[in-house]
Amino acid sequence: MTSRIRHLVRRFFGALSRSTPNSQELGEVQNILTKVEFELWSKMQPMDQRHSIEVTLRFKAIRPEASIPEVRAALLHDVGKIPSSLGVLARVLATVVGKRGQKFTAYHDHQRLGGEMLEEISSDPFTVKLVRGTNNTGTDINIAETLLALKRADDLVT
User: Fold this and answer.
1) Can you give the pTM of this predicted structure?
2) DSSP state of 84
3) What is the reported pLDDT for 35?
4) Residue range 55-69, pLDDT digits in tens
5) Would you state the torsion angle of the CA atoms of residues 150, 32, 157, 126, taken in this order, to the nearest 10 degrees?
6) Residue 125 half-sphere exposure, CB side, CA atoms within 13 Å?
7) What pLDDT sits at residue 140?
8) What distance in Å separates the CA atoms of residue 39 and residue 41, rounded to the nearest whole number?
């Protein structure tokens, strides 16, 4: 089984749990994000909140020198999934069939949407770029390295 498939299978079974982050985890997230970012993050589904915490822990292990805007991007990397409001099975279907319909398209465009949402609340521009997953100039080594670390943290199967 490829690592991407293992990652998706692990995410699927992890998403079946409806448990929310515990109070200690919530406190740590609250200490990292700005007040308005935390309010936005709190609108994410519990499965996405738990996933963002896991990704952030892995990201910090991969990139211990990460700045606050970088760590915020790890926590907020899936915030753009809020508008799709898809559950686990609908996400599986969206992954299989692609951009069909408004909700599936929103799910697939979550990086762009997340960047727009963060811009609207005046998040740090570096955080916005990272959530968008883009390095427009292609010459910013810090963005490229950080994006690679974020991708590794998001795709890591442990």
Assistant:
1) 0.82
2) G
3) 98
4) 999 999 999 999 999
5) -10
6) 1
7) 63
8) 6
The CA distance from 118 to 75, in Å, is 12
* 42, 134, 104, 90: CA torsion to nearest 10: -60
Residue with tokens 């089984």: 1
What backbone phi and psi angles, to 5 degrees, belong to 138?
75, 0
Both tokens of 28, joined, read 């740590």
Q: At what angle do helices 110-120 and 125-132 cross, to 10 degrees?
A: 170
Domains of the chain: 3-155 (1.10.3210)
Please give the structure tokens belonging to residue 37: 């970012």
149 pLDDT more than 80: yes
The tokens for 56 are: 């952030």
**Range 94-115 average pLDDT:** 86
Dump pLDDT digits (tens) for 11-42: 555 555 567 899 999 999 999 999 999 999 99
CA neighbours closer than 13 Å in the CB half-sphere of residue 26: 10
